[in-house]
Amino acid sequence: MQDKEEERSLMKVEEKLSKDGFTADFRVSEGRLHTLSEERSKSYAPNEVVIVDFYRFEGESDPDDMSILYALETADGVRGTISSAYGVYADTDTDDFLKQVEDLGKNLKKEHK
Predict the structure, then answer these.
(1) pLDDT class for 25, splitting at 50, 70, 90?
(2) DSSP helix, strand, coil percent of the chain (3-state; round to 5)
(3) Alpha-carbon torsion (11, 45, 33, 98), positive or negative
(4) Cα-flanking dihedrals φ and ψ of residue 81, to 5°?
(5) Do residues 47 and 53 touch, judged by C-beta distance below 8 A?
(6) How many domains is the chain built from?
(7) Which stretches does DSSP call E strand in the chain?
(8) Residue 80 is part of which domain span?
(9) Count of beta carbons in the 10 Å neighbourhood of residue 50
(10) In this predicted model, what pLDDT tens digit does every residue of 48-91 receive, in sequence order?
(11) Residue 21 lies in a domain
(12) Is residue 106 part of a domain?
């Protein structure tokens, strides 16, 4: 469970990203990134995704309670976010997918302000 200060900062980051056009929610399954919108559900391979930015959040009381929020952009312009926990709580599908994106040399294209 996140403490109040961490929760507020996560909410601020999500608000800022939303204002910057990162409005889609993503998940990873079967080695592909999927939009969660049922209206226009799409999926992407690692070579169709760029990590634009990321934000780390640590739990005050437990260093293992750490998560990371990624701002992603797809090849067809869909912008959104996905989060992943660290350590024993990590989602290995999400971590493996994002590692592939980084390995393709498309990590950190910080262009939004």
Answers:
(1) very high
(2) 30, 35, 35
(3) negative
(4) -130, 155
(5) no
(6) 1
(7) 24-29, 32-35, 43-44, 49-58, 66-74, 79-85
(8) 4-100
(9) 18
(10) 999 999 998 876 666 666 888 999 999 999 999 999 887 677 78
(11) yes
(12) no
